[in-house]
Each structure stands twice: as structure tokens, then as C-alpha cells.
Design goal:
Length: about 425
């Protein structure tokens, strides 16, 4: 109890002395010493334009306009050092909870941080924890960031990893240095929507890979998405323009919430398995998802097409036009998909639903639809065929029928009860 009491009293005295420093000592007295310490720590000559002391909300030293080597290499608007008992008792040896605010780093400086910020073996000076706020990295033609995060150090004083958190802590990026210029990068997200492109919402998303000056090789993609699982791999390059390529495999995805992102009216229900290769590219990371190229295959089981009634046109042998509304249930719907920018092509579509089947192709561009579908409905020995042309808007498709064809003579062919077949299927 006595030792604890003495420690608290001593800490209070030290804090009081620190708080009185602005009144009794000009900062220039230890400015040169601090610049030397920082230069030893980061491996580059460090200059501090100004040192201030603030009492509120907590006592801190503020180093303003700090330049490492030259402004193009690293420039920090503020380095904030809290006046705590730990930092006072370990002054010259270690600092904790230092904050770097409003900084711009060159790409080479950022990549070399694991080699720069480490324990000074001669003087034993190290940083325990280093927070980052509004830090950007300057590339050749653009800037990445700003980001907020925390540099964590191991017992030897070397960088253990960089942790970046965002979007109300739903996103976390862990960067761990491995070899010179090489980093292990892990991206974790929970209940997170894609900030670019369509707002696809992931229950959980994890990306693991290695990064260097050229980009990020994502060796493992795992995601929980709309009740199903997505796996795959990808490569993100940022050397010149931004480009993302890769392959994914989806299992047991609920397609209704996914398709509703594109059209809440014309959509499908059911569970989907799919695989796809993709390519996105853009001049900046903000433009990355604006140019998309996707090639894939899919199979949806036990679902219903909403706003698409493919069976009703089989009732009439005369040309008809069916405008929006209705639905078609199916046991399976399969096909290929090709997406290029804003154009989606669905090809080799095959729909199976008991005695009814359909196959065709569909194109969607700028919310406009075009395509053709051949349908067939069999009831025992009786059969009806139809060819439909698709037009109109995605939200309001038009099905134009040439008239159902029946192979037998009309007087000997009974009318097929399509309503009964709908309920049967």
C-alpha cells in the first residue's frame, strides 16, 4: 500500500512539473535533443518547426510541421506526445500512445517503415504504441488514404503490425511486415456493404494475401453472403492504374436479396451455386468498380421468376403481348453470364419446371431488355411450343408471342389446361 501511495504521489509531482514546463523552460532547450532522438528512430534527419504544450483536454506536447529528410519524403502536421507518468519516467528510452496526425508519406518511406521505425540499439529508445490519424501515402500519380490506424510494436521495439479500422469498426485491415518490401495483409469485415458499385452486404468477409510495391496477391477469399458461402482468389494491382482480377465460387446463395439490388420488381428467388472470373479496372481506387468484366456460370434451384410469366402465352395460338406481372416457378434455372461494363448477357438459359421447360438468351443494357426464349409444355401425348421475344425495361418486361404451336390438327388437339399445370408444378 505504501509503495503504491508513493508511486501515485511521485507521478502527481512529475505531472505537475511537466505542466509547469511552459512557464519555466523554453522548448528550444530540448528541441535539438528531440530531433536527434527522432532521427535515430526513423533513420532520416528529422526537423521540428515548432513545439507547443497544451493543457486541455489532457496535457500533451505537440510537435508541429515535422519533416523527415525532406517534405516529399514524409511530412507530419502534428506529433502529439501525452504527458503521462509512463512517458515522463521513461523519457529518452520509450514513449507510449504517441499520435501522428495529418501526415503525407511517400510510397518508398511507407514501404520502408519496418526498417526505419525500430529500436535504437545504442540508446535503447523505442515506441510502445503509435496511433495514426488522417495519414495518406503519395504514389506516383495519386494519393491513397487518408487512413486511421495503429502501429503496434513487439518486445524488441520493432513493428509487429499495422491495424487500420474504419466504417464504425466494421472493417479492419492488418498489415504485418515479413521480408523487406513484403507484407502479409488480412482484411476483415462484418455486416459490411461494398462502398463502390452495387451495395452488396457481407455478413462476414476475409481476404488474406501478400502485398508489395506492385499490388496485393489475395490467396484466400472467404465470405458469408446472403446465407451462402463464397471462396476464391484474386490479384489487386496498383502500380499504374488500379486493376482487380480473380475467380470466385459461390455455394447456396439466396439470390433474391442479391438480384433485388438490380431490380426489386423483376427478380428471382431460390438458392444459387455459381463460379465466375472477374476483372475490374480504373484510374483510381474510387473508379475501380466502374469498369467490370465478368464471365461465369450459375445454377438456381427451387425458385420463382417474378414479373416473368412464361406459361400463359402457351394458352393462345394467336400472337399475343404480355406486359409485366405474373411469375414462373422452376425446379432449376441454369445458364452463363457475361457482364461488360453496364451490359449483362445471359446465355444458354435453361429453365425446368415439371412438364414445362424453356431455353433462350437475354441481354440487359441501360435497364433495357432484349432476347428470345423458346418454351415447351407437355401434357401426356399433347405438346405445345412457343417462341417469345423479350423487350421492354427490366422493371417492365414485354413478352411477345407468335402463338403457341401444337403438332396435331387443331380439331383433334384438346386445349391444355395451363392453369392446372401451373398449380401442379
Amino acid at each position: 500500500m505504501t509503495s503504491t501511495k508513493n508511486f501515485l504521489i511521485g507521478s502527481t509531482i512529475l505531472l505537475s512539473i511537466a505542466a509547469s514546463l511552459p512557464l519555466i523552460m523554453p522548448y528550444g532547450v530540448f528541441k535539438n535533443s528531440l530531433e536527434t532522438k527522432l532521427s535515430q528512430m526513423n533513420g532520416g534527419k528529422t526537423q521540428i518547426a515548432q513545439i507547443e504544450f497544451n493543457y486541455q483536454p489532457k496535457p500533451v506536447f505537440i510537435l508541429r510541421d515535422v519533416v523527415i529528410e525532406r517534405p516529399e519524403t514524409a511530412k507530419v502536421a502534428e506529433i502529439i506526445i501525452p504527458v503521462t507518468s509512463y512517458n515522463i519516467l521513461n523519457w529518452g528510452k520509450s514513449m507510449r500512445n504517441v499520435l501522428i496526425r495529418n501526415a503525407v508519406l511517400s510510397r518508398s518511406f511507407a514501404l520502408d517503415l519496418p526498417n526505419r521505425i525500430k529500436t535504437d540499439q545504442r540508446n535503447g529508445f523505442k515506441i510502445d504504441r503509435l496511433a495514426l490519424e488522417n495519414v495518406s501515402i503519395k504514389l506516383d500519380r495519386r494519393t491513397v488514404g487518408p487512413i486511421d490506424g495503429e502501429l503496434r510494436f513487439n518486445a524488441n521495439g520493432n513493428i509487429e503490425d499495422l491495424v487500420i479500422r474504419g466504417d464504425q469498426n466494421r472493417v479492419e485491415i492488418q498489415v504485418h511486415p515479413t521480408e523487406p518490401g513484403q507484407f502479409k495483409v488480412q482484411f476483415n469485415a462484418r455486416n459490411w456493404e461494398l462502398p463502390l458499385g452495387q451495395p452488396v452486404k457481407f455478413e462476414f468477409l476475409k481476404l488474406i494475401g501478400t502485398a508489395d510495391v506492385n499490388g496485393w496477391r489475395i490467396s484466400d477469399i472467404r465470405a458469408d453472403l446472403y446465407g451462402g458461402l463464397v471462396t476464391g482468389s484474386a490479384q489487386l494491382n496498383w502500380q499504374s492504374n488500379w486493376q482487380l482480377t480473380g475467380q470466385i465460387f459461390a455455394t447456396n446463395i439466396s439470390v433474391e436479396p442479391l438480384m433485388s439490388l438490380y431490380s426489386p420488381i423483376t427478380r428471382s428467388t431460390g438458392r444459387m451455386n455459381a463460379d465466375a472470373r472477374f476483372k475490374y479496372q480504373g484510374a483510381t481506387e474510387q473508379q475501380l468498380f466502374k469498369q467490370a468484366q465478368i464471365q461465369g456460370r450459375f445454377l438456381i434451384q427451387d425458385g420463382t421468376l417474378h414479373n416473368f410469366d412464361l406459361i400463359t402465352p402457351l394458352k393462345s395460338q394467336n400472337p399475343t403481348t404480355l406486359r409485366r406481372g405474373g411469375q414462373t416457378s422452376f425446379s432449376s434455372l441454369s445458364g452463363g453470364i457475361a457482364l461488360n461494363d453496364n451490359t449483362v448477357v445471359l446465355h444458354n438459359l435453361i429453365l425446368q419446371s415439371g412438364k414445362f421447360q424453356a431455353h433462350g438468351d437475354l441481354r440487359i443494357s441501360q435497364q433495357k431488355m432484349s432476347g428470345s426464349i423458346n418454351t415447351q409444355l407437355a401434357a401426356g401425348a399433347m405438346m405445345a411450343n412457343n417462341q417469345l421475344s423479350i423487350s421492354g425495361l427490366l422493371a417492365a418486361p414485354e413478352l411477345n408471342s407468335r402463338g403457341a404451336l401444337r403438332p396435331n390438327h387443331e380439331e383433334r388437339t384438346p386445349i391444355i389446361d395451363t392453369e392446372a399445370l401451373k398449380s401442379e408444378n
